[in-house]
Design goal:
Layout (H helix, E strand, L loop, with lengths): L2 H30 L10 H25 L4 H22 L5 E8 L2 E8 L5 H22 L9 H25 L5 H39 L1
Antiparallel strand pairs: 1-2
């Protein structure tokens, strides 16, 4: 094997690992962010890092297929890095850094109210994580018996939508934190994007469930 071929084989895997590094730096920036503490400038480099990480996801698979250098390492690490990036980002968006807290009067008593400016709530992460665990379990079990369950069009749409919505939400939070004047329009746009992502994520798991049902049903009938 020539040095040129070896380099080609390693580049997709290096891009995959670079995504993990970029995700780590992205998480550090979000860990220091607090909506009500005037740190909105942290969101700009965070957006740039997330987009760069998403681009590596596009490039590693494309180059591996074009150069015919797909590997077991890539098949394992590529979806792993994707899940770390997406689920990690959503966890931070649902966390206290993106919460807005204010005292309000309820029945004459002062009560500390909270509002998630990202529009991402903990139950949404539970839904997405449940989908990922279910699909991973189905693919692992059935591919072990020789059945192939590659990514379908819904799965690809899900990943594209997540990769677009997360930086879009960060940008909208940045505009809100910078006292931008279109708060109401930003809130509606944010909620539509977030809920559309949840719906597409759930729908993308249905073909795996129905496919697994057909395989097990045919196996019982064999």
């Amino acid at each position: 094997m020539t040095a040129h071929v070896i380099r080609k084989k390693n580049i997709p895997n290096l891009l995959t690992m670079l995504r993990l590094v970029l995700a780590g730096v992205f998480f550090v920036l979000l860990a220091f962010y607090r909506f009500d503490e005037g740190r909105h400038w942290l969101l700009i480099p965070a957006i740039v890092l997330f987009i760069a990480a998403a681009v590596t996801d596009l490039l590693d698979g494309m180059l591996a297929r074009r150069w015919h250098v797909e590997s077991k390492f890539g098949r394992i690490m590529d979806p792993f890095c994707d899940k770390v990036l997406i689920l990690g980002a959503l966890c931070f968006l649902a966390g206290p850094g993106f919460g807005f807290y204010e005292w309000r009067s309820v029945d004459g008593l002062a009560e500390l109210g909270s509002y998630q400016v990202s529009g991402v709530l903990p139950w949404m992460i539970v839904v997405i994580l449940a989908r990922e665990l279910l699909v991973t379990g189905i693919r692992g079990e059935l591919e072990g018996t020789g059945h192939q369950f590659g990514a379908n069009i819904w799965g690809k749409l899900k990943m594209i939508l997540q990769s677009v919505v997360i930086p879009a939400v960060l940008l909208m939070v940045f505009l809100m934190d910078s006292e931008f004047f279109l708060h109401e329009a930003l809130n509606w746009t944010r909620d539509i994007l977030v809920y559309a992502t949840i719906i597409v994520t759930v729908l993308s798991g249905i073909p795996y469930v129905t496919g697994a049902y057909r395989v097990t049903k045919s196996a019982r009938g064999a």
